[in-house]
Structures are given as C-alpha cells and as structure tokens.
Amino acid sequence: MPKVKVDGVELEVPAGATVLQACELAGKEIPRFCYHERLSIAGNCRMCLVEVKPGPPKPQASCALPASEGQEIRTDSEMVKKAREGVMEFLLINHPLDCPICDQGGECDLQDQSVAYGRGGSRYHEHKRAVTEKTMGPLIKTVMTRCIHCTRCVRFSEEVAGVDEIGALYRGEGMQISTYLEQAARHELSANVIDLCPVGALTSRPYAFEARPWELKKTLSIDVSDAVGANIRLDSRGREVLRALPRVNDDVNEEWLSDRGRYLVDGLTRRRLDKPWLRRDGKLQAATWAEAFAAVAAINPGSSVAVIAGDLVDCETQFAAKQLAAALGSSLLEGRQTGMAYDTSNLAAVNFNSTIAGIENADAILILGSNVRDEAPLLNPRLRKAAKKGAKVFVIGPKWEPTYPATFLGEDAAIINELPAEVVAAFEAAARPAIIVGGAGLAKGGLEAGLAFSARFNLVRDGWSGFNVLHMAAARMGGLMLGYAQKGGLADIVAAQPKLVISLGADEVDWTKFANSMIVHIGHHGDKAAHAADVILPGAAFSEKDGTYVNTEGRVQFAEKAVFAPGDAREDWTILRALADAFGVSVGFDSFAELRAAMIAQVPALGAEGLAFYGDLPAAPQGARADGVIAAYPIKDHYLTNAISRASPTLQRCSAELLHGEVQAEAAE
Amino acid sequence: MLSGGVHPLMADRHIEPDSPELRARWGNFAWTAENAAKAQEIVARYPAGRQRSAVMPLLDLAQRQVGAELNTQGWLPIPVLEFVAAQLDMPIIRVVEVATFYTMYNIAPIGRFHVQVCGTTPCMLRGSDDILAACKAKGLHKGHTTDDGLFTLTEVECMGNCASAPMVQINDDNYEDLTAADMERILDELAAGRQPKTGTQLPGRHTVEPAGALSNLTAMVAENHDYRGEW
Q: At what angle do helices A109-117 and A78-93 cross, to 10 degrees?
C-alpha cells in the first residue's frame, strides 16, 4: 500500500495502482482518451500527463505509470497545464472541425476535454489528413478522419469480445483503424465499440443524425432481449425511444450491451398493435375497447382459463394475469412456451447460482447444451475471463465458436452420464467447478443429470455454488417465481382444453394446438400470436411500462417507463384489471402501487432489488440421466429472437447481411 | 512533400486489393521444400505457444519466395498473408497490422529492383536530390515501377548511412558515397544483369572510415587524448 502525495494531499493507494488511479482516488480528474478501466493500458494518447517526482523532469503518462511509495504527483502545475494543451493541440491537428455535423457532438470526450484542457485556438493552418471511411457493417458508422488512434476499439475486440477483427493498419500519420478487408464486424457485442470510441469516428449507424444528447429523456431500464437482464438506459424524445445504451453494473453487464439488445429499439415503433382487434368471420377487424371486452366477457369461460406468458413480460403483468385467473378459479399458468417441462419445484435448481460475475472465478466449466454467444451474449465475456485465468471449458452439444479454448465432447447429452477421463480429472482437481445447463440441455433431461453431476463433483461447497441453469427469456425467472409452470409444461395446458387462453405476448407458442380455445392476446407487436388470436388487446412494450424483471441468476431489477404506448394501447396491468371487471370478478388491486404491493406480499423477493434467495440445491433424483442427441440449439437467428427484434429493420438487416450473407444495396450518398 | 506534411508515398502505401485474380494466382501458395524447412526452423526459435513471434521472419521468407517466383523483389498478396496467419494460428488482422506497419514488407506488386533513395537531411545535404534526378533521368518515378518491371523507386527516410551519404538501398544491398553518375552506372549495370560493387563507391574508401585526411579528433591518432579539458 504505497503512500503518495497528489497535489499536496497525502493518501494511501492500493498496491498495483497506477498514478492515474491514485489521482482519481484523490478526487482529481485526469483527462484521457485511450485509457479505459476495462481494457489493457495502451498509453498512446498522452492526454493523462502529470508531473511526478521523483522522476525525469518532464510530464509522465499517468495511466501507464505505477504509483510507488513517496511519489509527489502534481495535476495542477503549469507543466501539466502546458502538457495537456500541447497534447490536445496535436490531437486536433488532424481532427476535423465538423462537430456540428458529428453524431458524437454533445457527448464527445474530445469536445469536452478540448474545452476543459485545450488552448483557446489553433495555430495549425496547414492541410489536415483525411482518411477514407471503412465499412464495419450495418451497425457501426465510420468517419475515420475523426479517429485519434486511441485503439480502444481494437483492444475491446481482442480482449473482451475475443474476436480479433479490428486492427490498426499502416503507421504514423498513415495509421488507420479498420477491420480485415473492411469486412463487417460480425460478433454479438460489436456495437460496444461505439460507446468506447471517445470521438465521432465510430458512431451508431441506425441512430445517425437522429438526435442530440441534450434533447433526449433518459430512462433507466432493463434489457429484455435475453435473460441476463443487462442494465440499460433508454434515450427517448417525444413518444419514441431513439436508442438504448448500457449502464454500468459490474454484477450483470459490466458496461457492455449485446447488439440485439441495443438495436431492437427501432422495432418499438413498427408493427405495433395500437388498437383492439376482433376476429369476425375468420378475419381480424379493428374494434373498440368496449367491443373487445364485451366479446371476451361473452365467452363466459367459468374457470376454464389458462394464461401463457411470453418471454418479454414483466412480473407485474404476470402477477395481474395470475390474479385474474385465480379470481376465475384457474391456476393454469405457463411461461415455457416451447413446451419444456423441467422440474421447477425448487427454484435453486433452475437458477444461475454462481452468479454472472461469479462464474469468472470458476476453474472448470461444463456447458451442457448452450450456445452461450447466442443465448446470453453478455455471459460469454465472463466465461472468456474465466478461461483466461485458466479455467478448462467443456461443451456438450453441437459445435459453435467460443471465444476461448473449449473442448467439444460431442452432441449426445448422454455424455454427461459417462464423462471422458479427461473431464473427470479436470473436475476432480477443480477448486470451483461449475456446470451451465442451457435450454437445449434442459430439453434432454439435463436438469436432473446436471444435479447428479453437481453431487458427484461436489459443485456446491464453501462459498461457491457451481450449478447453473442459463435461461433465454427475460420473463422466465420472474414467471417461475410467480408459479408460471405446470408439471407437464405447456402440454398440461393443451390437455386441459381451456375455453379461454390469455396470451401475454406469447409469440413462440404453437397456437394450432389451441384451435378450440378462444385466444385473447395481450401483446404489443403484430407477431406470431397476433395471427392466431381471436381478440387482440394492445399492450405496452417493456419501454412503455414500469416493471420488475428477474434475470437468470435470480437478480430482481426494476425498469422504468420511458414513453407512452402508441395509439389505443394500454399498460398490460390496466387491461387485465379491466378484464376482471368484464368478467365481474375482483383481482384485489386498483392501482399499480396496489398491484405491486399485492405481488410483493405474495412473493416478497420481488420487492427487493438484488439477488433472490432460493434455498439449497435439491438432491438429484435416483438414477438421473440425460438422454438424446442435441441436434441444434433453440436460437436459430440470434438477431431475431423476439417480437420486438423481428420488427426492427436494423436487426432484420443484421440478420440478412451478417447471418444469411445477403448483399444490401447501399443508396448512393 | 505536400504542404500539409503528408508524405505522398506514405499515404499511397496501400494493400493490393483482394480480387478473384489475386486469389486464383496466390490462393494455393505454399512453402517450397527448402522454405518449409526454414519456416520450421524459424518457428522453433520461439517457446511453444509463442509461435506468433515468428510472424516477421516468416513474412520476410514469404515475400522472398514470392519474389523468387516472380523474379522480382517480392511482395505479400493477401492470400499469402492469410497463409502465414494460418501457419502461426493467429488472427489475420494481426498479420496485416505487421505487414502494413513495416515498409520493408511490400504490400503491392513491385519491380525486380526496389530502389530506395534516402532523402533525409544528411543525404539531402550531400546531394540526394541529384541522385533522385539521375533516377528520374533513367525513367524511374517515385512510387512507380518502370514499364519493363525492373525498377521501383521509393524515397525513404534515414537508413543509417549518414557517414557515407548520399546512399541508396537496392534490394538487400547499399550503395553509398554516390554521385549522379554512379547512380546511373549502377542502374545500367543492374539492368544489364550485372552486379555492381556494393557499399561505398568512392575509390580508396572501404567502409565509413574518414575519406581523405582526418578532419577532427586529430590528437587521438597518436594517443588516447583527453579532450574534456578543452570543452
């Protein structure tokens, strides 16, 4: 713990800290472009110069200088001021003065820091360098003349994403940042380089020229594109969400966001259900709310009611529907739309117990039936960190491209019953062994086999729980906590032949099985369920309502309402409350606050932000085995995973161009 | 030099674009038996798992093999870069970074003789402009290859032969203490298929020992003189 003096104030800094970190601990702002706390240190922008004694009598790059005992650091001296001005002047030599037409304007590190630390004017009157634009795919727009060569994007791709595709070509003044042969960046975290870029060289292509940051209302929300529950900020103007940006949460998403979570927002204004629809003579026709409710009430289903929850719904909506079904006398609730029927009697057995941040510390990991990059893009960098620390990773299932060394054991789920000696040895030697059971694994009896594996290798030990289930739906854990699971899964609902099925945005269900039921769809997009529905009641998307979400590790998180739902669409809970009136029953709440209070009274864990506690892992049933060949993973197209993303032109284009190799015609600019 | 300080040749340095023709010509690139052995020997110089360290010597080897095939100085087509990347199990972009950074890797087709004229201050003061003029008189243009495919002319920065300036590097050899006449003679001889004398062109000079009489440190001739008192 070296003691240093920053601007005359003595403080102790952690061993291994840099001078920059020491200055930050002392509350001093150090300007920087290339330094980023989640990336390796490059030391090439020179903006963080400070004066350090003892040492050579010249400014030193604080990001790359270790803090050591007795250093006297000055961040406020004349030398530092001149050094910063000098560096800024050099950086601006080749930087175009096109802030008025630059999308980074208003949230640009270079702009802010040149105001704060630069000279008033330029002394440079010669020609500036110009660099041709580079193609980086449908998500990243490049204006490479603005690039200041901080190499954050290069380091992110290599270190965090694990996909070496961006590099610094040529040298000196000729240096250019580019992908190989200007191919599109095609990994699932590619757009994070937009956030990392301190200038306007890499900006968001779909968001190009849409808005200025100061016009936007910022709302804290949760990403619903997968079960990781990345913390996001929705930037909206008027009634439209213009973009989603990641928020820092070290426990969940660090500060990254998957491409599909970032870009599904433009699907929020397209293909929307903005008025009620009724099926008359086999055709859906627009209706009023009163007509729609009258039609639903006319079914008079008695207790023959089932609710099927979709992947994107919040806990409040599921709770409201549960209360309505209960008031009608039914407990037929299901959220696993594709018919999965794993045992949910103990939620600890269907939870990601290591936690997303904790899995970094595992030293042996068995992935049973999960393509982590598709199913939880933000979990993959964690596994990569674990692998970098030396964890051995094994995968049972069809081959995919991990960004770390992993051994594929085969496609037969039964391999987990008789593991190869190499795997057994690795897990017997491991201090923090872990298993991750994915959707494809759950479908082959992976849950019970996983529990047996857990017992065999003692996955739960002091301060460590290595048994993990990786879900894919943002609604899943919340739904399971609220009882959205039948013993036999969706098949139980089909067998019950309910008169009335309420779909809460359940777009993945095979609705042909409910030909004899009346299907009331409360959803926000004209997707698969809307085609099958008899009555459509337009609801709100995740951005248009307050809601509670529980991610795959059981973390309860709250999202806030950013904008109003379009047209006649209403927040889901109000629709369910009105349905209760139509049926003449009481659900026990008249306001959102009452709803939430009732929900928390029933499931107290949903009231507290943070990890829910599900108790101890159950014992594996006798003779538990996994069986069957995992032919494929459930996600076929990782850009188009839900109703919102299927409506998003950006993600449609990503899917067509990056997954299916279509060539998109570019309009001449 | 442009007024903006952009060196026209540096800015012009570009990877030869990928094309079906390039793929057809070089897609099947593989080491010759001799070079395969050499490559193996080079990779073996580095610890196991650190084979990426061999990227620079392997790129050089590949460039020379391409040169031997084309009877030129050799260059690195994209499929050859990919071949080296695959051999060292490293991402192609990291190989391209190296190949584009170092100007000794030619990333576009080049003539049989790569004439690199030093134009940095000491050479310029000693007459590198005349050397360039001599090249121009022989039909060489900066950044271009002559029509017969023999010469590619590049102006480069200091190559560390200031004591025998002006100098030019042609392929692996240096020619120093040049005059315009020397330059023309050297180009003629190379064109005729003969190997001119390398190194200094001054008669009576061997390397970079003082040309003629000593002009300074004369007291050092007789003894190990201590000059410090005279500073």
A: 140
Q: CA-nearest residue of chain A to B9?
A: A174
How far is the alpha carbon of B18 from chain A, nearest alpha carbon, in Å? 8
CA-to-CA distance for A394 and A427, rounded, in angstroms? Answer: 10
Q: What is the pLDDT of residues A216-243, one digit of tens each?
A: 999 999 999 999 999 999 999 999 999 9
Arithmetic mean of pLDDT over chain A: 95
Sign of the CA dihedral with A172 first, then A176, A179, and A185 last: positive
Q: Residues A330-360: pLDDT tens digits?
A: 999 999 999 999 999 999 999 999 999 999 9
Which residues on chain A are in Cβ contact (under 8 Å) with B98? none
- pTM across the whole model: 0.92
User: Which one of A169, A173, A403 would you mutate to disrupt binding with B, by most B Cβ within 10 Å of its Cβ?
Assistant: A169
* B135 at A interface, C-beta within 8 A: no
C-alpha–C-alpha distance, residues A344 and A490, integer Å? 13
Instruction: Name the CA radius of gyration of chain A, rounded.
Output: 27
Neighbours of A29 (CB within 10 A): 11
DSSP A140-161: EEE-GGG-----HHHHIIIIII
3-state secondary structure of A338: coil
> Which one-letter DSSP state was computed for residue A103?
T
* pLDDT value of residue A7: 95
Mean pLDDT, rounded, for B45-64: 95
Q: In what order do the strands lie in the sheet with A547-550?
A: A547-550, A555-559, A610-611
Compute the 3-state secondary structure of chain B and give helix, strand, coil in percent, each to the nearest 5: 45, 10, 45
Query: Could you tell me whether strands A547-550 and A535-538 are parallel, antiparallel, or unpaired per DSSP bridges?
Result: unpaired
Q: Tell which residue, A90, A110, A88, A87, has the closest CA to residue A99.
A: A110
| pLDDT for the residue B5 | 38
Nearest CA in chain B to A169: B97
Judging by DSSP bridges, how do beta strands B168-170 and B113-118 pair with one another? antiparallel
Distance in angstroms (rounded) separating the CA atoms of residues A527 and A632: 24
Report which of A401, A381, A383, A400 is spatially closest to residue A392, judged by C-alpha positions. A383
Strands A176-179 and A166-169: antiparallel
Predicted pLDDT of residue B212: 80
The answer for B 10-39 residues in CB contact with A (under 8 A) is 10-11, 13, 15, 18
Sheet holding A364-368: strands in order across?
A407-410, A392-396, A364-368, A433-437, A467-469
DSSP string for residues in A384-437 = HHHHHTT-EEEEESS----SS--EEEESBGGGGTS--HHHHHHHHH-SSEEEEE
Q: Which amino acid is at A587?
A: V
Report the alpha-carbon distance of residue A16 to residue A3 in Å, rounded. Answer: 12
pLDDT at B4: 36
Q: Are A369 and A439 in contact (CB under 8 A)?
A: yes
Asked if the Cβ–Cβ distance from B4 to A168 is below 8 Å, we say no
Question: Residues of A numbered 106-165 whose beta carbons fall under 8 angstroms of chain B's beta carbons: which are they?
Answer: 126-129, 164-165
| Both tokens assigned to B170 | 């042609």
Whole-number Å distance between alpha carbons of A100 and A119: 20
Positions in chain A short of pLDDT 50: 668-669
Reported as a pLDDT band with limits 50, 70 and 90, residue B13 is confident
**B101 interaction partners in chain A (CB closer than 8 Å):** 169-171
Residues of A in contact with B4 (CB under 8 A): 126-129
Q: What is the pLDDT of residues A175-225, one digit of tens each?
A: 999 999 888 888 999 999 999 999 999 999 999 999 999 999 999 999 999
Helices (H) and strands (E) in chain B, counts: 9, 5
